[in-house]
Amino acid sequence: MKLSTWPLSLGALGILSAVGFATDRFLAYREVSKLLEAKEAECLRALSVYQAHREAFGSRSGPTGPSALKTLTQEAAAKEGLLLASLSESERDLGKGRREKSIAFRLQNALHAPMIRFLSELESSGGGGRLKELHLHPSRSAEGGYEEVEGVFAKAFSAGGLPR
Q1: How many CB atoms lie within 10 A of CB 104?
Q2: Spatial separation of the C-alpha atoms in residues 138 and 109, rounded to whole Å
Q3: Measured between alpha carbons, how far is residue 116 from residues 84, 121, 127, 149 in Å?
Q4: Which of 31, 107, 127, 150 could cysteine-pair with 135, CB 3.0–4.6 Å?
């Protein structure tokens, strides 16, 4: 019985293709594994830097105690170039050893974009504070602006002054 070379050639070509594909997948896997190990080592280095220098990665606004809310509001308004017409503080007892410090502010002639950045800065740097009220009075003269913006920013504290 004589075998034809055509089926043997196709069979050999199939086996050769499978070996080539398997080799390609193995090399790709090895390259990805090396990249993964490098990224894991980089993350571990970053974690060790963070643990060694925690104070450098703290809040952008510094202290966030009860007395810092007024300063935070003034600094955020000044940073955005907003006219802070009035600013008043109040404090109330929430019960169960908790107190709430509130800052009522009024901005005049505020454009939309700086006002949004101001509110974002308050919430992100406020250390757990939140915007409780916001009243917008659109400007009749300036497009995309407000004649007056009134708001209340508040933060709850335990009796010892620690944020809750």
Answers
A1: 17
A2: 9
A3: 14, 9, 18, 11
A4: 150
What's the pTM? 0.55
Q: Which residues pair with 131 in a beta bridge?
A: 153
Integer Cα distance of 148 and 84 in angstroms = 10
Higher-pLDDT residue of 100 and 50 is 100
Closest residue by Cα to residue 163 from 90, 99, 71, 88: 99
Structure tokens at 95: 């019960």
d(CA 79, CA 3): 87
DSSP summary character for residue 140:
S
Return all residues near 152 (Cβ < 8 A) that are at least 6 apart: 102, 103, 104, 105, 131, 132, 133
Q: How far is CA 118 from CA 41, 112, 155, in A?
A: 38, 10, 17
C-alpha distance from residue 92 to each of 75, 95, 102 (Å): 24, 9, 8
Q: Is 12 strand, coil or helix?
A: helix
Note the pLDDT tens digit of each residue in 72-95.
Answer: 888 888 988 898 888 998 888 888
